Amino acid sequence: MRLARGCWDGGSRFLRGNSPYHRPMASVDRTVGCLFCGNRQGRFESEEHVIPLALGNAVASGLVEDEFVIPPGEICDKCNRRRLSLRDKALAEWPPISVFRSLGQVANRRGQLVDAVAGTRWDIALNPKDPRRFVLFALANTGPRSNRDDVARALCKIALETRWLDYPLDARSARWNPIASAAIGGPLPASLLMGLTHPDAPENVNLAPESRVFVDDDFAALRIFGLTFVTGLQLSLLINSHAPLVPRTAWWSADSATGVLTGPDSFWGRFEGAAARATRTTAASSMSSAKNRSALPTEPGAQLYLHRSSES
Fold it and tell me: What confidence tens digit (pLDDT) does each residue in 31-49 have?
């Protein structure tokens, strides 16, 4: 029997090929085994963080009292440590999230602050009477090269895991198979919508990570409205639903022909703030250690450094 490249051979072995997909999810029984791929063999020893550690889902971050995790035994280590870790990385490094992660001084899993990633541009206007007061204008790339499709896959991962925590039997039902497939590299569901909402004012920024999933059980197909809150931003995942009118929100949709997201290629933000002190420097070495500051490139040859308040 001839097998298609990149499919399963009917057992637990994955035949490597050019296809990023796994076996057709319609044929997968996920009622037991791995929550995502259905595999019943291999190791199931690691816990899975629903929201990445890098985005504050760690007790050490000071943003949560308990980490939001799936316990060992539910997700195979191959999915957890390889496929799902790629989704986590894409989410944490997406330029809009990187902007707010740097501004909010959300530390990584090592307790260090991180610089804004490539794909973000900054302008700063200092108050001439008080240089400690400033206005930041940020432009983040959200085009196809920003890895936005994998951000949508990360939201699929978060939605399925959140549903498992609330209703494990439903999360393992066949109607969630397209979401599970997308999370581990399969095609995005044709009905998928992804939204990004920024806060209306600095005082309304909540850095604590959180995830919620609402399911319409009266609808024949799977209809969900997922909300993920990270670094002060709200990310929405809609399946088989229309985009609601939400202020300060950009929307992307999965193209039914190509399976990739279409929508805005950039995301603007404006931030006002006041520093405890402001100092000009000509060398980064004169600043605090890298783990206690994050750098924002504001113009060629210039950097704006944000420090932990405890050092001011």
Answer: 999 999 999 999 999 999 9
Quick: pLDDT tens for 187-226: 999 999 999 998 877 677 889 999 999 999 888 789 999 9
**107 phi and psi angles, rounded to 5 deg:** -75, 155
Nearest 5 degrees, angle CA 12-CA 18-CA 21?
A: 55
State the Cα–Cα distance between residues 136 and 273, nearest whole angstrom: 8
> Do 237 and 152 meet the contact criterion of CB atoms below 8 Å apart?
yes
Rounded Cα–Cα distance for residues 208 and 191 (Å):
29
Q: Is 298 exposed, middle or buried (0-12, 13-18, 19+ CB in 10 A)?
A: middle
